[in-house]
Amino acid sequence: MKSLTINASQRESVGKKATKALRNAGQVPCVIYGGDTIVHFAAPEIAFKNLVYTPDVHTVVIALDNGTKINAILQDIQFHPVTDKILHIDFIEIFDDKPITMNIPFKTTGNSRGVRAGGVLRFNLRRIKVKGLSSNLPDFIEGDITNLKIGNKLYVTDVASEDYTILHPDNTVICMIKTSRTAVADDEDEEETETTEAPAAEA
């Protein structure tokens, strides 16, 4: 999985007044949990652009101004209800030997038989919740839909891997091929053609 580095400054003052001053200066107050101690830091809002405003997932290296580097993942983020500015971010420290839980983006491969016949690909899940070591987690999970006909479904069990554990029930549907008006119309036209041609064959 890809990793981003965020250069940040550790902060000692964590009160409301100090937090407000940071935001007024264009800084985002953040916290890292999960380690031996809770770490408070701040970084410019623009530093989080490639982490927050993207469909991709990343691990993060928080490079503090005291030389400390902490590996982490984004846990929670708060936005201003009006301006959508980032107000606060929570991170969880990660370790090489401890599994983590993440929502990994899902992508399809192949050209579905059902879609070629006029069906429509519908998604129930855009991200799949998995658990595993950070070094084993992929940037995205792929599922082949080539053989899916109209009415067929792709389940989470179809994209299982030894590298991680999927945290959804086995009967969870990722996507399916649903019928459409075009597909129904094609079926009706085919039936009409067969009915019309039958008498001619008897004559």
Automatic annotation (TrEMBL):
Source superkingdom: Bacteria
Domain Large ribosomal subunit protein bL25 beta: 100-180
Region listing for Disordered, in residue ranges: 184-203
GO molecular function per UniProt: 5S rRNA binding; structural constituent of ribosome
Keyword Cell division: no
GO biological process entries: translation
Domain Large ribosomal subunit protein bL25 L25 stretches: 6-91
InterPro entries assigned: Rbsml_bL25/Gln-tRNA_synth_N, Ribosomal_bL25/Gln-tRNA_synth, Ribosomal_bL25_b-dom, Ribosomal_bL25_C, Ribosomal_bL25_long, Ribosomal_L25_dom, Ribosomal_uL5_bac-type
Keyword Nucleotide-binding: no
Record-level GO cellular component terms: cytosolic large ribosomal subunit
Ranges of biased composition (kind: Acidic residues): 185-195
Keywords: Ribonucleoprotein, Ribosomal protein, RNA-binding, rRNA-binding
Pfam family, one: Ribosomal_L25p
Family: Belongs to the bacterial ribosomal protein bL25 family. CTC subfamily.
Function: This is one of the proteins that binds to the 5S RNA in the ribosome where it forms part of the central protuberance.
Subunit structure: Part of the 50S ribosomal subunit; part of the 5S rRNA/L5/L18/L25 subcomplex. Contacts the 5S rRNA. Binds to the 5S rRNA independently of L5 and L18.
Xref: PANTHER family: RIBOSOMAL PROTEIN L25/GLN-TRNA SYNTHETASE, ANTI-CODON-BINDING DOMAIN-CONTAINING PROTEIN, RIBOSOMAL PROTEIN L25_GLN-TRNA SYNTHETASE, ANTI-CODON-BINDING DOMAIN-CONTAINING PROTEIN
Protein name (database record): Large ribosomal subunit protein bL25
Organism: Aquimarina muelleri
Gene: rplY
